[in-house]
């Protein structure tokens, strides 16, 4: 497109659309509409949908996707992508039980508990720093840079646990996955807290503004004094840290850790949630609550299909449909 | 003689907004025909309809007197229309041969591409234009001028009847332009018609036979070039009286009173970088404009990059008053009170998705920090006052910057740096691609700030801007600073002479 | 005069440095293997190595074409799983039906990718992510999430076992023919050159009057077809349709392409170097197996993942340095 017609396009937003139905409204609010449709469908069709138990199940299921999707949204906002989130989840998830079942932690349960949360998250942050370093200092394309941990991260987790399923009983640790506050699952609160904090960071802080600037036009951002490399590393570090936390939650929910399965295909769910939530793949936008909404939609579709006796496999196809539709609408809005 | 191309009554609207209305174009065989007009006048749209990139809403396009319905670039090429776009429409990663022959490669008997013959043909075609290069090498490894000539060679090898050159000279230096013009004359001799689109009116008088003037999507005039005056063309482009323009002066940089320059802000002493600078010496004082003169490729932008900490010094020293010893990245430079308005607004300036407000405060952000967040209130006050004082035309400070016109975008970017309250501002082609009205305003703003004590390093390809605006002009050549001219007393002729004189000596 | 003297050694090298690393590494690994392990150069090892890696070579070459246009195809693993099931179901009718049938299924899914990318303008990353999920779901649905054994009475199983013309297994022969054919397509036909031009600059290609649409439809369909063929190899190699296989194959394929020196942004790369990349990644496994076989150290399969990641890291770092040094020489 030439600058000329870009300008003409933009000034025309309101004039040319009077006669036809305003599709832009649908695509701008597609996520919310989809959510309402799914909820309405479930209230009418799915047995026991309004049961609190259903709500709890869905909250605990959606929490991990939502947390990772928030991190993914930040990375996508820089124009990058992080394929390693699932592997980082596995790594963090595999480490936690190793730590609190170690002899030292058996002797000092309090310290052990703290360490079993702090150390895996720290390791996850390191993975993120590595990804960020590769992307910003070595100029490796994000898909390739994060491919390294995608392959080897889970490998390290499997090596650490020797590929064994680790089961445990540790009520304190399991609180992360099964605890309740005022009757609602703990991780539901955690998701909200994370979302609010990250939203604040994106919209109200210097780092957030710089993040969006890097995604919007990296060259211009650098010339305006934005520390592009640091900002990018920051995005990958936050994303990996959140993934690590999600890994801990998965382990806590199951009271078991299987390095081969934790966070499997999570990168796809997280990317899908971010995109459904309105993140632009070319960067420059970070709709945090959009990502949460995206995660909820994906989870609800999965649940709806399962609860109505549709096989798991078909749910995958449905997910594919959602992704295509969401991006198609996003694309149509742009043109 | 029938027109080779006759476009008449062309209308085109984008999503309801009119870009072309009853536009005309008549091109005769073997003539060089210029199309001029301000940004947004509809030149590019008209050309892109001719080349099948856009579809016209109504009107007729006739080639050799018969109506045609070209709807893809390929059809245009097959009809003998070749286009050399401003942003080169070549593939730098591929070889020269591929770029010349792409889509028309010679085949072997098996129907496979015969690379041997393709290379030979490409070589032969290029030699006709005096270009003797290794055609197997990647195109991207050659200079822009060579790439431009490759694009023309492609057009020639396709036996085009019409060659359209869209801002073909905007990135060439004088010598290269000479070679380009030679090629244009050569093509003309062969009966090829050339449609020449340019911002540089001087070029028109050098090679064009006729000129079509566009304004607001309409064709407002068609003349034989030798019967026009520069002032007349400008007045027709702008739709204003010639006297009015003359009275206003050509630029807004020439202030009534000139400051007595203050203390030295920055002094670069015999600096060299890995990007072609050799022993450049330049200094800027408080309240003065120092111009950097020279041809494209002489190292003007490179000086700016070195001062702004983008390219590391290999030799020499930059001394700042009250500043740090060494500036190694833009953030340092900004802290030291230096701003850098870059040449390429779209690629190095604006963040298109972001609002006017966010674009304007991007460099200032670290100073707006309050309780870990951005101080919104101060930010809005500041942005509001700049929108007001620079006369930025925007619906609100929340409007995305991409929706603004080029001139207003440039003002926002200027405000990005002025907001920092800088000591020194480096301006690289601050008025390029901006319409005449905004150009004057931007120049006046710069002059105002200089009178208040700002030091400015001005890079401009327009001699008028340098001659009227700069207190001193440092002339660069092949990466060396060769002389310095002092105002008052500099005329366009003197500046050109300085550049040319030293150039000959340098080449000898 | 214009600066036309830009030819120098560095430029000459630049064209090949992107892929020279992979050839050197391949030679070193092969020499290392030959010197260290007795049976490494044996006919059995070579044949079984190539037989097993044929499917990875095939999908990598398909992926290479997609990446050359600047796109990506994440669906190849799922498509291979899907078509392995299709091939298993068709196996009673013999290889002459099962192979074209499975490849056709792959082509169809590839065509769907092309439709998403070209007609609906969905970014390739997302479009193929969707078909990846879709094909995976499809494979599970039609197989009931069970492996589908192939008909042992038919001639289908012979593919990986019986030698064509008594020399090499059919799998290897088919792979070889396909690779050579695609090499010629890329280097010697205008379709192939268009693929390269599209990746080098899509707008410029349109302006040159090249058919960008055709090139894109071609690469996605081709990649689907290659994945379809890989599914046939998978089914014949394991004796069953494997709906759960194929996880992470797209990433192995991308890794092979990148290791082979193809730019992920498109426009520059080659078929043989991609094959070398796939062989190199396969050899790392092969050598680890031999090392385990010597019994000195024992590395579990999990270690192989770690080492593969580390290996990818080294190659990428090497490439990024080569790329940045050659860039410095030209700007």
TrEMBL record, chain A:
Subcellular compartments: Cell membrane
Membrane topology of the entry: Multi-pass membrane protein
CDD domains cross-referenced by the UniProt entry: TM_PBP1_transp_AraH_like
Keyword list, A-Z: Cell membrane, Membrane, Transmembrane, Transmembrane helix
GO molecular function, one term: transmembrane transporter activity
Cross-referenced Pfam families: BPD_transp_2
Main location: membrane
GO CC terms in record: plasma membrane
Residues passing through the membrane, by range: 31-50, 62-81, 87-105, 112-134, 140-160, 181-202, 233-253, 265-282, 288-307
Name of the protein: Ribose transport system permease protein RbsC
Species assigned in the record: Ruegeria meonggei
Gene that produces this protein: rbsC_3
TrEMBL record, chain B:
One of the Pfam families matching this protein, by short name: ABC_tran
Primary localization class, coarse: membrane
SMART domains (UniProt xref): AAA
Molecular functions per Gene Ontology: ATP binding; ATP hydrolysis activity
Superkingdom of this protein's organism: Bacteria
Documented EC number(s): 3.6.3.17
Subcellular location: Cell membrane
ABC transporter domain boundaries: 5-241, 259-503
Keywords: ATP-binding, Cell membrane, Hydrolase, Membrane, Nucleotide-binding, Repeat, Sugar transport, Translocase, Transport
A GO cellular component entry from the record: plasma membrane
Enzyme class of the recorded protein, top EC level: hydrolase
Bilayer topology term: Peripheral membrane protein
Name of the protein in its database record: Ribose import ATP-binding protein RbsA
Source organism per UniProt: Ruegeria meonggei
Automatic annotation (TrEMBL), chain C:
GO cellular component: plasma membrane
Alphabetical keyword list: Cell membrane, Membrane, Transmembrane, Transmembrane helix
Transmembrane segments: 20-37, 49-68, 97-119, 125-143, 164-186, 217-241, 253-281, 301-318
UniProt-listed Pfam families: BPD_transp_2
Membrane-protein topology: Multi-pass membrane protein
Superkingdom classification of source: Bacteria
InterPro entries for this protein: ABC_transp_permease (IPR001851)
Subcellular location: Cell membrane
Gene Ontology MF terms in the entry: transmembrane transporter activity
First and last residue of the signal peptide: none
UniProt feature coiled coil, ranges: none
Primary subcellular site in the record, as a coarse category: membrane
Protein name: Ribose transport system permease protein RbsC
Organism: Ruegeria meonggei
Gene (name only): rbsC_4
């Amino acid at each position: 497109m030439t600058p000329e017609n870009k300008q003409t396009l933009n000034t025309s937003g309101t004039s040319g659309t009077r006669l036809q139905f305003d599709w832009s409204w649908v695509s701008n609010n597609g996520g919310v509409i989809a959510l309402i449709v799914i909820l309405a469908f479930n209230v009418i069709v799915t047995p026991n949908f309004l049961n609190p138990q259903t709500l709890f199940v869905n909250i605990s299921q959606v929490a991990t996707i939502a947390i990772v999707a928030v991190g993914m949204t930040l990375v996508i906002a820089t124009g990058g992508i992080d394929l390693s989130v699932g592997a980082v989840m596995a790594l963090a998830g595999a480490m936690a039980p190793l730590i609190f079942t170690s002899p030292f932690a058996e002797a000092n349960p309090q310290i052990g508990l703290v360490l079993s949360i702090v150390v895996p998250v720290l390791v996850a942050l390191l993975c993120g720093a590595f990804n960020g370093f590769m992307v910003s200092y070595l100029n490796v394309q994000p898909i390739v840079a994060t491919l390294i941990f995608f392959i080897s991260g889970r490998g390290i987790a499997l090596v650490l646990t020797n590929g064994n399923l680790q089961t445990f009983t540790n009520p304190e640790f399991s609180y992360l996955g099964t605890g309740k506050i005022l009757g609602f699952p703990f991780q539901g609160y955690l998701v909200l807290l994370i979302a609010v904090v990250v939203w604040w960071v994106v919209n109200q802080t210097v780092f957030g503004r710089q993040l969006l600037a890097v995604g919007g036009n990296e060259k211009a951002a650098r010339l305006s004094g934005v520390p592009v490399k640091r900002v990018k590393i920051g995005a990958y570090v936050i994303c990996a840290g959140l993934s690590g936390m999600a890994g801990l939650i998965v382990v806590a929910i199951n009271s078991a850790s299987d390095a081969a399965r934790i966070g499997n295909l999570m990168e796809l769910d997280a990317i899908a949630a971010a995109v459904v939530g309105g993140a632009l793949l070319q960067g420059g936008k970070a709709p945090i609550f959009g990502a949460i909404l995206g995660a909820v939609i994906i989870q609800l579709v999965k649940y709806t299909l399962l609860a109505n006796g549709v096989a798991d496999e078909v749910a995958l196809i449905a997910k594919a449909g959602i992704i295509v539709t969401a991006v198609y609408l996003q694309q149509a809005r742009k043109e | 003689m029938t027109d080779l191309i006759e476009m008449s009554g062309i209308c085109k609207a984008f999503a309801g907004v009119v870009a072309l209305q009853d536009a005309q174009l008549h091109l005769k065989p073997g003539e060089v025909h210029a199309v001029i007009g301000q940004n947004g006048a509809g030149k590019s749209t008209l050309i892109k309809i001719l080349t099948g990139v856009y579809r016209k809403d109504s009107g007729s396009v006739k080639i050799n007197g018969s109506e045609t319905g070209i709807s893809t670039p390929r059809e245009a090429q097959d009809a003998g229309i070749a286009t050399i776009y401003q942003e080169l429409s070549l593939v730098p990663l591929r070889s020269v041969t591929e770029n010349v022959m792409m889509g028309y490669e010679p085949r072997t008997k098996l129907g496979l591409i015969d690379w041997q013959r393709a290379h030979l043909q490409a070589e032969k075609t290029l030699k006709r234009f005096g270009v003797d290069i290794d055609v197997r090498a990647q195109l991207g490894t050659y200079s822009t001028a060579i790439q431009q000539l490759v694009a023309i060679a492609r057009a020639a090898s396709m036996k085009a009847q019409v060659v359209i050159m869209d801002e073909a000279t905007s990135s060439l230096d004088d010598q290269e332009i000479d070679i380009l013009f030679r090629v244009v004359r050569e093509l003309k001799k062969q009966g090829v018609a050339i449609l020449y689109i340019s911002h540089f009116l001087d070029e028109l008088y050098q090679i064009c036979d006729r000129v079509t003037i566009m304004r607001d999507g309409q064709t407002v005039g068609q003349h034989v070039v030798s019967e026009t005056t520069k002032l007349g063309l400008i007045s027709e482009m702008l739709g204003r009286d010639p006297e009015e323009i003359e009275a206003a002066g050509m630029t807004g940089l020439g202030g009534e009173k000139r400051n007595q320059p203050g203390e030295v802000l920055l002094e670069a002493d015999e600096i060299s970088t890995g990007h072609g600078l050799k022993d450049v010496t330049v200094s800027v004082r408080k309240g003065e404009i120092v111009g950097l003169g020279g041809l494209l490729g002489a190292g003007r932008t490179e000086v700016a990059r070195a001062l702004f900490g983008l390219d590391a010094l290999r030799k020499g020293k930059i001394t700042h008053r009250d500043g740090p010893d060494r500036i190694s990245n833009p953030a340092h430079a900004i802290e030291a009170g230096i701003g850098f308005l870059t040449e390429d607004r779209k690629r190095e300036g604006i963040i298109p998705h972001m609002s006017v407000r966010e674009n304007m405060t991007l460099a200032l952000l670290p100073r707006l920090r309050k309780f870990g967040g951005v101080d919104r209130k101060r930010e809005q006050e500041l942005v509001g006052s700049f929108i007001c004082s620079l006369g930025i035309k925007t619906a609100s400070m929340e409007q995305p910057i991409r929706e603004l016109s080029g001139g207003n975008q440039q003002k926002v970017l200027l405000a990005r740096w002025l907001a920092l309250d800088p000591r020194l501002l480096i301006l690289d082609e601050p008025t390029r691609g901006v319409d005449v009205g905004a150009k004057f305003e931007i120049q006046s703003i710069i002059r105002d700030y200089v009178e208040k004590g700002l030091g400015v390093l001005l890079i401009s390809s327009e001699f008028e801007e340098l001659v009227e605006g700069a207190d001193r002009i440092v002339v660069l050549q092949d990466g060396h600073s060769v002389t310095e001219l002092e105002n008052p007393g500099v005329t366009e002729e003197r500046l050109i002479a300085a550049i040319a004189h030293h150039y000959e000596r340098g080449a000898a | 005069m214009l600066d036309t003297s830009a030819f120098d050694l560095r430029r000459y090298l630049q064209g090949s440095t992107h892929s020279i690393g992979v050839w050197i590494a391949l030679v070193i690994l092969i020499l290392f293997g030959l010197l260290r392990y007795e049976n490494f150069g044996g006919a059995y090892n070579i044949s079984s190595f190539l037989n097993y890696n044929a499917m990875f070579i095939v999908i990598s070459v398909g992926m290479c074409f997609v990446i050359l246009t600047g796109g990506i195809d994440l669906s190849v693993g799922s498509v291979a799983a899907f078509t392995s099931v299709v091939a298993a179901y068709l196996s009673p009718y013999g290889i002459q039906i099962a192979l074209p049938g499975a490849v056709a299924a792959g082509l169809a899914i590839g065509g769907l990718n092309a439709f998403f990318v070209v007609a609906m303008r969905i970014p390739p990353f997302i479009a193929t992510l969707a078909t990846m999920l879709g094909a995976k779901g499809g494979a599970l649905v039609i197989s009931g999430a069970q492996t589908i054994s192939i008909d042992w009475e038919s001639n289908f199983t012979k593919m990986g076992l019986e030698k064509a013309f008594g020399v090499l297994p059919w799998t290897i022969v088919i792979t070889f023919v396909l690779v050579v054919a695609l090499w010629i397509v890329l280097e010697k036909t205008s379709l192939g050159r268009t693929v390269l031009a599209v990746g080098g600059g899509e707008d410029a290609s349109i302006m040159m009057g090249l058919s960008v649409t055709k090139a894109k439809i071609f690469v996605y369909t081709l990649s689907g077809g290659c994945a379809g063929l890989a599914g046939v190899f998978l089914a014949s190699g394991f004796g069953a349709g494997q709906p759960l296989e194929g996880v992470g194959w797209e990433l192995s394929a991308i890794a092979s392409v990148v290791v082979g020196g193809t730019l992920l942004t498109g426009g520059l790369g080659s078929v043989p170097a991609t094959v070398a990349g796939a062989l190199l990644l396969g050899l790392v496994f092969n050598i680890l197996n031999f090392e385990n076989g010597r019994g000195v150290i024992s590395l579990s399969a999990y270690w192989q993942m770690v080492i593969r990641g580390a290996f990818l890291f080294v190659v990428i770092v090497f490439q990024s340095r080569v790329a940045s040094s050659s860039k410095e020489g030209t700007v």
